[in-house]
């Protein structure tokens, strides 16, 4: 049994789907179903007997402890977080509560479980973090290695950096077998349409302006979500406790490049009179906007044999096609309909399963 947190979010739901398709081991998903958590992301696997769900908030230490004690996982994969930089600028408190205190609560419960299991060497706590903890690169700096100093610049990245430090400390102080991964910007199916790529697809389809911050020259290193999930499986299986692994797509692009590529693809797949490009509009920059992120993937490639498979053009095309083919999912997310779906599907305030059941 493995425990995944945040499995109803973008990356977590892609990971769970891949895990259940490839592995013969049950999984429990602990998620509070915030605005970013959408149980409909996993509608196709709800009836899989290897899948368990617990609606629990990481900020509730007792509830977290109860789930970990009940399922006795051999590994914990920690995806749950407040994850949107723009929201962290407007309302940072939730980021500190979930990303810092929530991670502490999970570490505390995992440590307790590990000790109760007799401190097995094979136990793993895999913390999914971000390259944003390293701060900003100039256009000519070398890409981030695992040794790059921490220089977080936004409330989001500062809270993730704090959580990375807690995870490190639980290894050095208590011996918990932890692994940390720091990945670049993910894209692909099931991403909440507040992030750049799905936001631009949705606005373009609605004929709305495509707001590019500043002059659009900021650079991100784009990682297709399935490549990321495969990397996490490799890290979980072969990673050395205490190590950090950087995961990137080797696909640096300026934001303007990304948005222009999207408009070109949309024009082929769903032509618009006058094209989509005319919708692009440069708007005032994000405060503290990091100029460039880029990941040096040599360590994970050399140590664990992982390489990204999906090139940016292919990944972007798959993503655009997915959003075009899944209009109901998008409409539900946008209308809040998926919250109703959740209420109908899970009893309100559900908690740990009946302890008499064997997970
Ligand atoms: P997301 O925002 O799509 O999903 C987050 C999930 O966590 C949701 O299901 C939400 O309900 C859950 N959650 C939030 N607060 C919670 C709480 N207090 N208790 C329990 N569950 C809670 O995020 P994502 O894009 O899937 O990112 C997953 C992880 O990967 C995060 O830790 C993020 O920092 C990291 N990451 C993401 C990216 C990216 O490009 N998306 C890049 C680098 C790192
Ligand atoms: P985002 O998807 O929010 O991810 P992050 O800030 O974690 O990298 O943004 C990706 C890039 O796109 C970032 O440089 C900010 C930029 N951006 C825009 O230009 N316009 C937008 O409306 C958004 C949401 C992002």
Automatic annotation (TrEMBL):
Residues 3-316 form the NAD(P)-binding domain. It catalyses: dTDP-alpha-D-glucose = dTDP-4-dehydro-6-deoxy-alpha-D-glucose + H2O. InterPro entries: dTDP_Gluc_deHydtase, NAD(P)-bd_dom, NAD(P)-bd_dom_sf. It is an enzyme of class 4 (lyase). CDD domains: dTDP_GD_SDR_e. It comes from the Bacteria. Its cofactor is NAD(+). One of its GO terms (molecular function) is dTDP-glucose 4,6-dehydratase activity. Its EC number is 4.2.1.46. The keyword Transmembrane does not apply. GO terms for biological process: nucleotide-sugar metabolic process. The keyword NAD applies. Keywords: Lyase, NAD. Pfam families: GDP_Man_Dehyd (PF16363). NCBIfam families: dTDP_gluc_dehyt. Belongs to the NAD(P)-dependent epimerase/dehydratase family. dTDP-glucose dehydratase subfamily. This is dTDP-glucose 4,6-dehydratase. It comes from Tamilnaduibacter salinus. The lineage of its organism: Bacteria, Pseudomonadati, Pseudomonadota, Gammaproteobacteria, Pseudomonadales.
